[in-house]
Amino acid sequence: MSADTNLMPIPGAVDPVPVARATKPRADGKVELVGLSKDAIRAEFETAGLEPKQAKLRSKQVWHWIYNRGVIDFMGMSDVAKAQQPWFAERFVISRPEVVEAQVSSDGTRKWLLRTHDGHDFEMVFIPDADRGTLCVSSQVGCTLNCRFCHTGTMQLVRNLEPAEIVGQVMLARDALGEWPSQPEGRMLTNIVMMGMGEPLYNFDNVRDALKIVMDGDGLGLSRRRITLSTSGVVPMMERAGAEIGVNLAVSLHAVTKEIRDEIVPLNRKYGIEQLLEACAAYPGANNARRITFEYVMLKDKNDSDEHARELVRLIRQYRLPAKVNLIPFNPWPGAPYECSTDDRIRSFSNIVFEAGISAPVRTPRGRDIDAACGQLKTAAEKKRRSREAA
Ligand code: SAH
Ligand code: SF4
Fold first, then answer.
1. pLDDT tens digits along 57-88
2. Ligand 1, atom 14: closest residue by C-alpha
3. Domain holding 75: CATH number?
4. What separation in Å is there between the alpha carbon of 146 and the centre of ligand 2?
């Protein structure tokens, strides 16, 4: 592939540049409609030459086809005049990310390697449970934050995903699960977590615009109570996330001392634990019914002692946080500088937090047979490709 000037090299672990990089326009010059608000679609139709009244009517109809029916072809829009359908098809597209690889685990977990229109790969995972189905959505290709245990943080290139590419993940999952037309009951895809590749609060505008469409009752219609945004602690954006998006918050805490968190989540050198927990305490909408989730990856002999568990409880109490703790067994990758804690250690850590009255489930690894964890399928697919090329 040719050099891509929109790619952002990792500028540094502590102080990366959280600016949006415009992506290349589509090679075919058409305007992508997925990810645009209703008003923006109407404006695009007007710019392309429709009378304001026509533009308004058509944008309503097209929006309905896109988000309620999952239709991607203007020729299938039966209430748009037949003679006018090609006019739309020549100027606009309704697309999905390209599927490079799709896998299903023996436990039902599904994983996709997806590709943007300008050739960058990212991942998406669907985790079915008895009473719900959770889609793990990516916000960026790669990540600038370099957490030491995270494989995504080691990727060399980063590009923000656009609203179309974020909403497009949810729509692609609905395609795969056969969940069109949209209906409020009986869906397999019930929950969304912004926990795939990337730091969602470093791509704030696009994530917000995408989630607005996902939450729109006329859009994909998922309640904000069923959406969780996970951040490694971009403190200055947390208040805006609460005010402008209003979804559940998860915070990747992972350590309770400055020394250890500085090492494993380098962003901590910029926004420390106290600042982060103050921002959590101020997060709009957090209460006992809607708790903040603290994610804690279990790293052997690093952050997993009983003292660490007790300090975690103390901090949650000190800041009076309506909290639950998610203990995540570390998912190792080749060359990772850490190992996962032992089962006994994880149990002991969990018990201490639980006995203090704070829920502390251990997340069971899902889809291990298809490497369904942060940044892992992409590497597996690249390895396969490289070995094919070498052969
Ligand atoms: N950037 C955001 C969201 C994406 S990461 C954040 O860091 O919160 C989603 C979660 O997966 C985070 O809690 C992250 O710390 C965790 N994670 C990343 N790599 C992991 C690994 N190898 N094993 C277990 N958890 C991992
Ligand atoms: Fe980025 Fe999150 Fe991975 Fe840290 S854990 S490198 S913030 S994706």
1. 999 999 999 999 999 999 999 999 999 999 99
2. 252
3. 1.10.150.530
4. 6
